[in-house]
Predict the 3D structure of the following.
Amino acid sequence: MSRVRILGLLTIVVAAVCGYVSPVVAADAVIYEVTESVRVGKTKGFKSSKATLTGAVAVGTALCPAWLATQLNLQACTIIVRALGRADDATGVGPASGDFDIAIQDANTVDGAELVVMKGDISGTIDLSPAFTKDQPLGSITGRFSASGVRGTPMANERASGNFTGTFRIPFRHEGKPAYLLDDGSVVKAHPDELLFGQGMVRLEVSFVTQPR
């Protein structure tokens, strides 16, 4: 296996998508939860959650190769994830699965990227035990991914697969404003671009370990 991990890319990636500089962490992708639908069980406990997330994948990763960025003058690639999680009420741990698209900008440079050049699937385990059992606004996910380029696009012949790990940062109110808890215990207020209609978005920082083709 070859490890694809770029230190400090949160600054570059989020700036490319949101237009500002965030505290630096190690991440190959930074994505935000834009929708979530929670289903409760008969005992009114948590049963499952469907979510849509979107954000940026760093140039130089398997899902946004450097040659593509050079060819199309990209600062990052957009990722759209549709996921289902089933965290257990008692432990906060459970299976997660979903699919994703990698998109680039089309002729309209004003709206978001919408030309899908790669499609993939994910499966793994979500761990929300810090949030469920310790009242800490954190979680994690580990698993596998695989993706294939879409015919008729620049990524048509590309394939990628491997493992991924991610850290969820769940927004909470700090000094009256949405904020995130960092790994060192410090708190950073959410930037206005990390808000959706005034509400904080769950942030997921992902790193990939890809398998050689």
